[in-house]
TrEMBL record:
Coiled coil: none annotated. This is Fatty-acid amide hydrolase 1. It catalyses: (6Z)-octadecenamide + H2O = (6Z)-octadecenoate + NH4(+); (11Z,14Z,17Z)-eicosatrienamide + H2O = (11Z,14Z,17Z)-eicosatrienoate + NH4(+); tetradecamide + H2O = tetradecanoate + NH4(+); N-(15Z-tetracosenoyl)-ethanolamine + H2O = (15Z)-tetracosenoate + ethanolamine. Residues 102-570 form the Amidase domain.
Amino acid sequence: MVEEMLGEILPRDAINLQAAFALTCGSATAIVLWKWLSRRRIQRKMEEARQWRDNSLDLMEKMSFPCFSLQNPGVQSEFILSLSLVELATKLREESLSPESVLYAYIKKALEVTRDVNCVTDFIHDCEEQLRDLKNQKDKGLLYGVPVSIKDHIGCKGHISTGGLVQFLNKVEKEDSVIVKVLKKQGAIPFVKTNIPQSMINYDCSNLIFGPTVNPRNHKKSPGGSSGGEGALIAGGGSILGFGTDVAGSIRLPSSFCGICGLKPTGSRLSTLGLASPIGGMKSVTATIGPMARDVDSLALCMKALLCDELFRLDPTLPPMPFKEEIYTSSKPLRIGYYEDDGYFQPSPSMRRAVREIKQLLQTAGHTLIPFVPPRLNYVVDELFTRGLFSDGAASLLEKFNGDIVDPNLKSQVNCYSIPIVIKKILAFILKPVVSIWLTCLIKMENDVDRYHTDKTFSQTYREEFLAEWRNLKLDVILCPALGPAFNEGYPGKLFAATSYTNLYNVLNFPAGIVPVTTVSKADEEELAHYKGHYGDPWDKRLKEAVKDAVGLPVAVQCVALSWQEEMCLRLMKEVETLVHERRTK
């Protein structure tokens, strides 16, 4: 009994020691003392990691000093930081700017931003060595000399991919992930890693190792997650190009909350080799890696750079499909399906208004807008997404918390996953529709083989149903809401099901991108007071609480295309961005 209970606290290899301790001290005393010792051991590991992070930031500060020796450093840095990625990449390749001046300017700015919002977890110190190697590089890649930030769990040689979990703190990466290798081949310089929520299964951005990241536009708001550190750093001006990952909206939600652009590509358009993950065995949900930046052209340039021979050589499982520039730059009018409400979570007033305004702008510009209703979204979210993500009853995820302390922002989720199956069934019977179905979907399916075939078959059947409607309307792309505005701190962990607007396109494996288009108005805030939601259940009430007090914060829309058509998705995103810019400058 003691061994089993203590086994929940410490990793399996410590059980013999626990048992010996129990025999020496007595069972009851042993359990209390061992829990205390275990907690202290975890805290020491966290303290060591924080010290390592602080030393890393000190090194960043020392490395930023060379920029002061440049002529007119303040003016130079200000000019560099004002450039778009396309402008910066051009000047670097033309040698009108040096990679040194650009790197040092962004190191200094990233340090300033992280001191404000706590978004950088590690400085990739060998970026200086890479800087020296660039001088000997004959072919200047499309991202020559461009500093790049990467999410915590993207593998980088000599650095730790923590996943926000204590058990990963001793695992130093032996080599770069494929995406980092390709970035370096194209001349980019990865220089920092950024913060994430514990286990990355939350769209807040907090863990007990490095603490919470806050939104640079309002410190009482979440930056989103799980690529929240990236969103905060880019929105704060400390990175010009970053990389996140997305399994339910983890690129798109931080982009929406922080007011930047982000692209979730089709799964297997870019390589995920070399990425750490707390969840394995997902069948009906596709995880992807993708870029985040200030504007759409930056995303397009990034995709063009990455979709190269080096990527296809390093990961031959990817289809060798270079970027199709002619689709991205086409001016042919589009047939655009649109919806303001997915029928699962009622949108906030600003979400609905954003889609309506962009729909009108697109129509005026000559595009055809057609109402579209995603079929059976309740079924998608409850059965295909939630059951697909947690088809083992969340057992593999919960295992990662052995030997760890759960972050307060994640406790409501973890507590829900930890409920015994019998209790889940009782609660599912008692509670209102959405909550009851969601709990039912967290009940483990007993037969792994049946589960695998069921997930794959049902996902494929739904995808065919969705495509049939798409083809019937002869659509090119879809315009729809992006969850927002930024939630108040602590609310993402209480509203996991609100990701319905984004997780649909992980189930479908369609590319989807975020473009900021407006800000929350006083009228939006007043209308929010009358928000009821579709079910009037606890989640609807929480959403109202989550988005309140957001006047002036960014609101985005989501653009979607068919699988493998990232260029078409970016085309719509660019069209939206251009029309919004024209409206603002009139």
